[in-house]
Design goal:
Blueprint lengths: L2 H14 L1 H26 L12 H35 L10 H20 L3 H8 L3 H6 L5 H48 L5 H39 L1 H10 L5 H4 L4
Amino acid sequence: MTIGELLDAATTLLRTRARLLLGVGLVVALVEQAVLFPLRQAADVTYLVFPHEERWGWYLLLLLVGFGTEMAGIAVLGAVTSSAGPRALLGASAPPRPVPVGRAALLAPAIGLLAIVAGATVLAGPVVFLLVGLAMPALVIDRLGAGRALLRSVSLSSRRALRAGWIRLLGYLSWLFIRLATGVAGWAALGLFLDTGTAERDHLATGVAWLMVNTLAYPTLACLDTVLHLDLRMRTEGLDLSLRRALSRRVSCDTALAVPR
């Protein structure tokens, strides 16, 4: 698929499980804001105010932890979208892809921690973002363990001159601008109902604005990861041919989807 078709496919996948994905997205975004709220208070920042010089350390910590929670949150949503991906692709003939909760619960925070550590080195942060985004689809669709899923993501994302990673970055930056613009508008709208004259209420309004936009952004980005994973396997591993052969023989597609351990 072209880049535009991939983005359309991600939106289509979101619509197939909209209530579930938005519900999980709300929970993930709520947990994230609960983690970031004390850091935002310590840095004393809102959408429209940058920190004073003596608080830049707290601000940098806020950015690092925020990067990690975003990566972990998208990974959590990726477990749900990856479970729905084969059914959206194949219809009723798709084999079930239940989420391995234990392995997913291990992988998501590991991705978040890896992002924080890599982000602290500045240059390694973008590299990690480009390479580990397909780990959760590898865990659910390919049925791999957490460690092998990370290695599989690096392998897949490195193919075709990092094609999947660059498209993932494009989707993330697009949604980042949308989130910033929508968040500022939401923060201003909340000011009509909340007295944002105090620092605590400013921080609360900022957290609520991020909560609203991330509830939609995270599921959409997770859907893009799932679509990228399937598309890349078709491009480089002939997944579409294997699935077509299985369908024509009226046998389970499970063998084509799973990767040998």
